[in-house]
Amino acid sequence: MKLLAASALTFLLVLPPVGAQVNVTTSRNNNSRDGQNLNETILTPANVNVGHFGKLFSQPVDGYIYAQPLYVSNVSLPGLGVHNVAYVATEHDSVYAFDADNNTGMNASPLWHTSFIDPAHGITSVSSGDVSCNDLVPEIGVSGTAAIDLGTQTMYVLAKTKENGQFFHRLHALDITTGQERPGSPVVISARVKGNGDGSSGGYINFDPLREAHRAGLLLVNGFVFIAWASHCDIGPYHGWVMVYNQTTLKRLKVWNTTPNGGLGGVWQSGTGLASDGNYVFFATGNGTYDGPKGGRDFGDSVAKVPAVLNPPRPYDYFTPYNQGSYEHFDTDVGSGGVLLLPDQGDGAPHRHLLVQVGKSGSIYLIDRDRMGAYNPNNNSQIVQDMEGAVGGLWATPAWWNNNVYFGGSGDYLRQYTFDPTTGLLSNGAITTSRNVFGYPGSSPSISANGTSDAIVWALQTDNYGRGPGILHAYDANNLATELYNSNQNQSRDNPGGAVKFTVPTIANGKVYVPASQQLSVFGLLAN
Fold first, then answer.
1. At the N or C end, where does the chain have fewer CB atoms within 10 A?
2. Is the pLDDT of residue 245 over 50?
């Protein structure tokens, strides 16, 4: 491992504006995974247009950016002064810290850059050929969004490496001011659970660092780090895994295998982190074996609820669709999308705690988190609301704002549904849609707003991945038919870079941070 850092400065750089600023320290902005920033006072529907808004600058990086950029304001870096910082992780096993406001002068270089590889000593990223899968190309390193603890100024990130022919996953804890490893970091991921799903494993399932893929973002809750795994291209044998580590010591505390007596059941969620309300953790699994009604331990194609300290061998509660067998057979994952937790409702509400889940089928499941319903072989009447095929298949996560839910399905328009707190139900259909269609894989919309006003829905269109640039869209959150801006309106100025599927923009303090292949692009209000 090596650490590359900018030279220490002997003088203080120009300080960024100081004020009430938002921080984005985890996947989809918070542990509810709702994608919203309600403290945006600079970007508004009045000024986000091609005449006043566009790409300000970009920063080159050494690989594809699949993870969501993170943002921390007013960070004091040794020898470098105080900066608003954008943090970016790449598939080349790197983490970068950039000044978030400009790339001029000393800010043209990273504030720091940490690399987890050392090719001279046989330590590299993992190639797509190594895993026989072209889902992530051309290499695999850091795929899931990191999580930052502001109290200790520590970033937790999971990296995959190839080391002289062997494969490793490591949990790293980095100082966000220097990029250096915290004491005791990193730790190698390993696990073993009882099960017969691998046949020849002697009654145990071992974590396979080659086959297992880390895609869902990390979750920090109550002093614990939750990490989940799936696979590369459904190439088995593999299983879904969820593990819990102590945030301070990095000691592994708990482990759960989603299909110990069968197979598959990965936790992908198209990159969205596991969700939590502080007491419980929620996540969705992909196609795989399921034997919940028989008292078994296999939970493919399910939405699972576990205590905030994982308690195996079964989830505390769960929901599995009645047609799980068909989903498993046709690879119609429930867990292709991430779990969205709705805000807690009032005491008189029909359901105080709700979540929304959508997978490849495009069916919207509105579920009571207190009584998730388990399994009904006849239909899904045990959950609050089941709207079959309501949106395009979701390789994404919906967003929430002001009693609205926004869905970015594959091969579909961006769709706005309303939520009625008095009935506890979503509208039967979309009340507005975008005028443009998003191809595969769709989009995870993000929201910027000043409370309940000036709301904008941001969406990255990445269906051109591998062939051309992504497109950043901005819509009026009250009416998606009103597109405020898109980066193709002035592509020569606003090209964000090569499209990377499943990517999510980060909106913070008047700027939009767009991940792409080989670069991070920063959008904002243009100088007059």
1. C
2. yes
